[in-house]
Write a structure and sequence with these properties.
Blueprint lengths: L2 H7 L9 E9 L3 E8 L4 E9 L5 H13 L9 E7 L2 E6 L5 E2 H7 L7 H19 L3 E2 L8 E3 L5 E3 L6 E2 L13 H16 L5 E3 L5 E4 L9 H10 L11 H5 L9 H5 L14
Antiparallel strand pairs: 1-2, 2-3, 3-5, 4-5, 6-8, 7-10, 8-9, 11-12
InterPro entries: Kinase-like_dom_sf (IPR011009), Prot_kinase_dom (IPR000719), Protein_kinase_ATP_BS (IPR017441), Ser_Thr_kinase_AGC (IPR050236)
EC number: 2.7.11.1
Keywords: ATP-binding, Kinase, Nucleotide-binding, Serine/threonine-protein kinase, Transferase
């Protein structure tokens, strides 16, 4: 392959007034994430660059609105600003020196999270979700690739491109509108403690019975019950909310105040960006 042809295949470095783009650190279907230098703030940041197709503008606007709404939550990546230029949209965010939860699961090299460590991560995600839910916003695309762990091992929720906005006058009445986020959280916890994608048990009538837990895995009952409940297979318990989650046996003798204050380092410190 010739050098000239190789250069043609390289993505063009974006440009935005006030920022120096340094290198690409992430790639998605409709855009990319770049490490950049904020000239005014004299600090590094992350910039999400999206192709501004007319069919995508609503999603881009929703993502920006969601980031603005979550700006004061410590477990949501900090929004700095946004800009539009020609056929591109730019979302400027804090640079998180860490990795996605999906990367961290791989970095643990086949060693599953203990239930105790996993519940710390789950509690931080739950606080972030509740923060958005009380503002009428559901993430709607929650998975381990959309959750960062920073250099201290704490959660930073990202990627609100699929965010759904609900009528705030109904919040507290129709909590079912946020069930998908809690169900997605159950899948994340399941993946952490089992090392596998979410699996369903079936009975002899080919009907779903709930999450499958191998007897060879050391997963305590409160953790199993929490996953079953938040995944929607336990209809006896109330629809998940943060307050209901705090009362669940999985979080017995758990200091939520320490979590909210980030009093301790997270249970797993991810490899940092090079």
């Amino acid at each position: 392959m010739s050098d000239s042809f190789s250069q043609e295949l390289q993505p063009a470095t974006p440009s935005l007034d006030g920022y120096i783009f340094q290198k690409k650190i992430g790639q998605g279907f409709f855009g990319s994430v770049w490490l950049a230098y904020d000239i005014k703030a004299k600090a590094n940041c992350a910039i999400k660059v999206l192709e501004s197709f007319s069919t995508m503008m609503n999603e881009i606007d929703n993502e920006i609105s969601a980031y603005k709404a979550g700006k004061d939550c410590i477990f949501i990546v900090d929004f700095i600003g946004s800009s539009f230029a020609e056929d591109r949209s730019f979302i400027v965010m804090e640079l998180v020196k860490g990795r996605t939860l999906a990367d961290c699961n791989v970095a643990k090299k086949g060693i599953n999270w203990t239930c105790g460590d996993a519940r710390i991560i789950v509690s931080e995600i739950a606080i972030a979700l509740d923060y958005m839910h009380t503002r009428g916003i559901s993430h709607s695309d929650l998975h381990s690739g959309n959750i960062l762990l920073d250099e201290h091992g704490h959660v930073k929720l990202i990627d609100f491109g699929c965010a759904t906005f609900h009528d705030r006058t109904l919040i507290g009445q129709d909590v079912w509108e946020f069930e998908q986020d809690w169900e997605d959280l159950s899948h994340i916890l399941y993946e952490m403690v089992t090392g596998k994608k979410f699996e369903i048990r079936w009975n002899n009538d080919d009907k779903k019975r709930g999450p499958f837990f191998s007897e060879s895995l050391d997963i305590d009952y409160p953790c199993q019950h929490f996953i079953t409940w938040t995944s929607g297979y336990n209809k006896i318990w109330p629809t998940p909310t943060l307050e209901a989650i705090k009362d669940h046996p999985f979080f017995e003798d758990f200091s939520w105040q320490d979590i909210e204050n980030c009093s301790n380092m997270g249970p797993f410190l991810p490899p940092q960006l090079p």
